[in-house]
Design a protein that fits this description.
Elements (H helix, E strand, L loop, with lengths): L2 E3 L2 H6 L5 E2 L2 E5 L6 E9 L5 E8 L14 H16 L8 H6 L2 H4 L1 H11 L18 E7 L2 E5 L18 E6 L5 E5 L4 E5 L8 E5 L5 E5 L5 E4 L10 E8 L3 E11 L2 H10 L7 H11 L6 E10 L4 E6 L16 E6 L5 E9 L2 E10 L2 E4 L9 E7 L4 E10 L2 E10 L4 E3 L10 E6 L4 E7 L10 E7 L5 E3 L18 E8 L5 E10 L17 E12 L4 E2 L7 E3 L26
Antiparallel strand pairs: 1-34, 2-33, 3-32, 4-5, 5-6, 6-7, 8-9, 9-12, 10-11, 12-13, 14-15, 15-16, 16-17, 18-19, 19-20, 20-21, 22-23, 23-24, 24-25, 26-27, 27-28, 28-29, 30-31, 31-32
Length: about 575
C-alpha cells in the first residue's frame, strides 16, 4: 500500500486530538535581520531577554583567502556537484567572489563562503587561520519589538559593523531590568610568523573564551573578571536576584590549571609553530574536562553595580592526590532567600559524574540518589519556596535520557514526575511561586534518536504533565486554518502563570541575505522557524479538535517525517546545556 492514514488514537498521543483555548499565544516580535528568535528569561515586571539566530548578511572577509588553494577549489567543485543533483545551475564562480564582490551581491556565493569557513569536517571551524563568525546575538524584547544587546563584540577593522565573531548569551533579568549573561572576546585578525620561517600567516585570535557580564537597563556593563585569569581565564553569569542593598549574581569562574594540564601547555604552547592563544584554545577544546578548574561563584553587587564581595564555592567531591585533571562546579540559579543551585562533579562507584547540587553554608550538597542509576544532570531553577527543578540522566531503553525533577528542600524529597512516555527525554526550565513547572519533553514516540520536543506545564500536587499545545486554539481566527504555532520550549513562567518560550511556525524560506527562496520551478519554498512567544491564561474552555489526518508514505530515499518541519536548532538558546 502506497500510504495509509494514522489512527486518531496515535494522534492523541502526539497531542493533536484535543486542544483548548485556555491560553492565548502572542508573538513577542522578531529581530530584523535574523531568522530565528528565542526567549531565555523574563522578570515579574515584564522585562524579557532572549536570543536571535540565523543572522542575515553575516560579514565575510575574503582578503586573506588564497583562491588558488586546493581546499577552496575542492569545496567549490563539491558545491557545484550538489547543485547539479537538484537540477540547479550554480550562479557564481570563485573569480566572482575574489574579484567581483559576489560575496556581498550573490546570496549563493555568500552561503558558500559561510559554509567554507565554518566547515567542521575539514577543521576550518576551529582552525585559527580562518575567519570566525557567529550567527547568534542577544536580544531585549520591548512592546515595540526586539533589539540587539551587544555584549563584548566590537567594530571590525576589516568591514563595516561588528565583527560578528563572539559567543553571546543573556541568561537572567531582574524586576528592574538588570541583565546577566556571558560572552567571548571578538576575534582579531593577527599576523603570525612561525619560528625559522619567513612567510607571514594570518590568524584570528581572541583575548578570552568566556566572560560573565552584568548590564544595567541603561546599558552600563560590568565584566566579571575571574581572579585567576591566566590565558584569559573563564567566567560566566547564569542568574541574578535583586536584594535590599543591590544584587546577587551567580555563575562560575576559573580558579586554576591542574598540574597535568599546565604540563600540556608547557609542552605544546611555546609560540613557535602556532600562536599561544590558539594552542590554549585547542587544548581547552580537546580535553574533555577543559584546561581550567572551575568553581561555582556568588558575586555581591551594590545598587551601582560595583562588586562588593566574591564568594567561591567548592565541590561535592574531594579530588585525590593523583587526580590532576580539571574539576568543576557551577551555580545556575539563586532565589530571593539566597539559596543557590547548580551542578558539581561528584564521585560514585569510583567514577566521576556531574550531578545536580545546592550550595549552602559553605557546603555543596547532592540530593539525587545515584543508587537509582542517575548518572548526570543539572539543577536549573529555584522558586522562593526553595523548590529546585532541573533534569537528571539515566539509561532507558538502551539510550541515555533526561528526566525532569523537582526537589523540595524543606522536606528533602525528590520527585521525578511521569512525563510524556517512558523513553521521552524531558527537562524543567523554570518554576514559579505557585508551584507550576514549565519545560520541554519529547513527544515523538516513533523515533529513537532525533525526536520532536514540545513545551509542557506541570503543577506540583496535581501529578499530571500537560502539553502546552493542548492549551491553545484548534484554529486561526478564520475558524478553518489549523493553528500555525507549535510550542517547542517553555523557558520561563511568572507568578501570573504567564508562560514565555519558543514556538515554531512555517514561513516562506529565506536565503542568507533574507530573500525569499524559489525552487527550480519558480515556486516559493517553505521552512520552519523559531519565534519567541508569550502565553497568557484566558477564561476560555476546552475545545474538542477533530483529528488531523496525516499521510504516512512508504519510506523512500527522498521522503522525510512530517515532524521534521518542526525540528529547529534550539540548542543555541538553551541555558541548560551551557558551560
Amino acid at each position: 500500500m502506497k500510504y495509509k492514514l494514522l489512527a486518531a488514537s496515535i494522534l492523541a498521543t502526539l497531542s493533536t486530538s484535543a486542544m483548548s483555548a485556555t491560553y492565548q499565544l502572542t508573538e513577542l516580535g522578531r529581530l530584523d535581520g535574523a531568522k530565528h528568535n528565542y526567549v531565555t528569561d523574563v522578570s515579574e515586571n515584564g522585562h524579557i531577554i532572549g536570543l536571535a539566530n540565523g543572522i542575515y548578511r553575516l560579514p565575510i572577509d575574503i582578503s586573506y583567502i588564497d583562491f588558488e588553494d586546493s581546499a577552496i577549489r575542492n569545496a567549490y567543485d563539491a558545491a557545484k556537484a550538489s547543485y547539479e543533483l537538484i537540477d540547479k545551475e550554480i550562479t557564481f564562480t570563485l573569480d566572482d567572489i575574489e574579484n567581483n564582490d559576489a560575496v556581498n551581491t550573490n546570496a549563493d556565493a555568500h552561503a558558500f563562503m559561510i559554509s567554507f569557513v565554518t566547515n567542521t569536517q575539514s577543521g576550518r571551524l576551529t582552525n585559527s587561520e580562518y575567519q570566525k563568525i557567529s550567527s547568534a546575538l542577544t536580544t531585549v524584547y520591548t512592546p515595540e519589538g526586539s533589539s540587539e544587546q551587544v555584549l563584548f563584540d566590537e567594530q571590525s577593522l576589516d568591514y563595516d559593523g561588528l565583527t560578528r565573531s563572539t559567543s553571546n548569551l543573556l541568561n537572567a533579568v531582574t524586576d528592574d531590568g538588570v541583565m546577566v549573561g556571558w560572552g567571548s572576546a571578538p576575534y582579531e585578525k593577527t599576523a603570525f610568523t612561525q619560528t625559522d620561517e619567513d612567510e607571514e600567516e594570518t590568524h584570528f585570535l581572541r583575548e578570552f573564551i568566556s566572560r560573565g557580564i552584568v548590564i544595567s537597563p541603561d546599558g552600563v556593563k560590568v565584566s566579571l573578571v575571574p581572579e585567576f585569569n591566566e590565558y584569559g581565564g573563564t567566567s560566566i553569569a547564569t542568574d541574578i536576584v535583586q536584594s535590599n542593598n543591590g544584587y546577587v549574581v551567580v555563575g562560575s569562574v576559573s580558579t586554576g590549571i591542574p598540574v597535568d594540564r599546565q604540563e600540556d601547555i608547557d609542552d605544546n604552547c611555546d609560540g613557535e609553530d602556532e600562536p599561544v592563544s590558539d594552542c590554549i584554545e585547542s587544548l581547552d577544546r580537546n580535553i574533555s574536562t577543559g584546561l581550567f578548574d572551575k568553581r561555582a561563584v556568588k558575586w555581591t553587587l551594590d545598587n551601582s553595580l560595583n562588586i562588593t564581595n566574591t564568594e567561591v564555592f567548592g565541590l561535592a567531591i574531594t579530588p585525590e592526590d593523583d587526580e590532576d585533571f580539571a574539576f568543576r562546579s557551577n551555580a545556575l540559579a539563586v532565589n530571593e532567600n539566597g539559596l543557590i543551585a547548580g551542578t558539581s562533579d561528584v564521585r560514585y562507584d569510583d567514577r566521576r559524574y556531574s550531578m545536580p547540587v545546592y550550595f549552602e553554608n559553605g557546603e555543596v550538597k547532592q540530593f539525587i540518589n545515584q543508587d537509582d542509576d542517575w548518572v548526570g544532570g543539572k539543577a536549573l531553577a529555584i522558586n522562593n519556596d526553595n523548590i529546585i527543578v532541573g533534569y537528571a540522566n539515566k539509561r532507558i531503553e538502551n539510550r541515555t535520557r533526561t528526566k525532569f525533577f523537582y526537589f523540595d528542600k524543606n522536606s528533602n524529597s525528590v520527585v521525578f514526575p511521569t512525563d510524556f512516555f517512558t523513553s521521552s527525554s524531558s527537562l524543567a526550565n523554570d518554576i514559579n511561586d505557585n508551584g507550576v513547572i514549565v519545560g520541554e519533553g519529547e513527544t515523538d514516540i516513533f523515533n529513537s534518536s532525533s525526536r520532536r520536543r514540545e513545551g509542557f506545564m506541570y503543577t506540583i500536587g496535581e501529578d499530571k504533565i500537560v502539553n502546552i499545545n493542548s492549551l491553545l486554539p484548534c484554529y486561526e481566527a478564520d475558524g478553518e486554518t489549523r493553528f500555525k504555532y507549535t510550542v517547542a520550549e517553555a523557558k520561563a513562567i511568572n507568578n501570573n502563570n504567564e508562560i514565555f518560550g519558543v514556538a515554531t511556525k512555517t514561513v516562506e524560506k529565506t536565503d542568507s541575505f533574507g530573500n525569499v527562496v524559489l525552487d527550480v520551478d519558480g515556486n516559493i519554498e517553505y521552512e520552519s522557524v523559531a519565534v519567541a512567544v508569550k502565553l497568557t491564561p484566558t477564561s476560555g474552555s476546552v475545545e474538542e479538535c477533530p483529528a488531523q489526518e496525516i499521510e504516512e508514505y512508504e519510506r523512500q530515499s527522498s521522503s522525510f517525517p512530517w515532524y521534521t518541519l518542526l525540528l529547529l536548532p534550539l540548542a543555541a538558546a538553551r541555558r541548560a546545556f551551557r558551560k
